Amino acid sequence: MSTYCFDIDNYCCKTEGSDYPNAIPIKEVIEAINRLYGKGHYIKMFTGRGIISAKDWKEYTIKQLDQWGLKYNELIMGKPHYDFIGDDKMITVQELLRDETLESCLVAEIVKAFKNGKKVLVFGNGGLCAEASHFATELMGKYGADIYLPAIALADNSSLITAIGNDFGFEYIFSHQVEVLGKKGDILIGMTTSQSKNIVKALMVGKEGELVTVVICGMKSEIPFADYKFKMFGNDTAEIQNETIKFLHRIAFEVKRVYGN
Description:
Blueprint: E1 3-7, E2 13-14, E3 24-25, H1 27-38, E4 42-47, H2 58-68, E5 74-77, H3 93-97, H4 100-115, E6 120-124, H5 127-140, E7 151-153, H6 158-167, H7 175-181, E8 187-192, H8 197-208, E9 212-218, E10 228-232, H9 237-260
Parallel strand pairs: 1-4, 4-5, 6-7, 6-8, 8-9, 9-10
Antiparallel strand pairs: 2-3
Helix pairs in contact: 4-9, 5-9, 7-8
């Protein structure tokens, strides 16, 4: 088994400065650490609380971790005994939260769809609109392998987008296209850092039409009806978008690898 060492503030919880009593636990991170603990790994938690103020936060921190339900073997008050770390095995929050089994299931679902003559429809707003185009390009272009798979980014036709927005309303710019283009068994991928109405509506239409629905979203997004849900960790929209494109690159590469075997 391995030893894992995790910081408490702004890794396991959101903390503003030294306002430790109002720290907000990040449920998904705590659950992931608890899974490691349950597998028998040795978990060290550490915190710099009190280093500057010289206040003893140990008893309070123990009670707080207990309230959060976090399971660990050792609590270090202060930083671990090293000045710098250079290690290719350091775990980011996103890597800690990564569900490789669910990713593999999605890859298999997409490959199955392609082999059955289906396609991918992908969409998002703002920066995620660009990432939707990026993902469609990776599937249809040379990325990863000389395998070319049908994918449509639903915001790429500006004439259609403005027509739908003008005639029906912005909320319908994706859902209307899903109604027209979507076929049973297609893969529908919506991306939002929050719970954008036009994204949610399109996913609902896809669900009703028996498309395979996938949502890539922020940690606080709640879209329970999607077949696959992947939450991207990030302190702001830009970080969530950065994690999203890494995820999409990984999925595109694995889809082509599996499809070609």
